[in-house]
Amino acid sequence: MRLSARNQIRGTVTHVEVGAVTTTVKVQLGGGDTVTSSITREAAEELGVEVGSEVTVVVKASDVLLAVD
């Protein structure tokens, strides 16, 4: 699958928390950082997301903010 989104990062699912409607998925990236994604329970089931799955985190946003102290 090809996407127009440029921010694509490979990682491994380390935690899946299934809720009534939303599933929270934690993905460990190659450098050790973790990204958390909230997707619908239905989407998680369709994708077969489970701990140990290799996934691609896709970030598509119209605004990306930075903050400094």
Description:
With 69 residues, this protein is mostly beta strands. The protein has a single domain, classed as RNA polymerase II/Efflux pump adaptor protein, barrel-sandwich hybrid domain (OB fold (Dihydrolipoamide Acetyltransferase, E2P), Beta Barrel). It has one helix and four strands. Strands 3-2-1-4 form a four-stranded antiparallel beta sheet. The termini are far apart. The mean pLDDT is 92.
End-to-end span in angstroms? 40 Å
Question: CATH superfamily membership, which one?
Answer: RNA polymerase II/Efflux pump adaptor protein, barrel-sandwich hybrid domain
CATH topology: OB fold (Dihydrolipoamide Acetyltransferase, E2P)
Shape: globular
| Record field, number of beta strands | 4
SS field, number of helical segments: 1
Percent helix among the residues? 10-25%
Name given to the CATH architecture: Beta Barrel
Low-confidence stretches: none
Order of helices and strands: EEEHE
Question: Which short descriptors sum up this protein?
Answer:
69 residues, mainly beta, OB fold (Dihydrolipoamide Acetyltransferase, E2P), four-stranded antiparallel sheet, 1 helix, 4 strands, 10% helix, 48% strand, globular
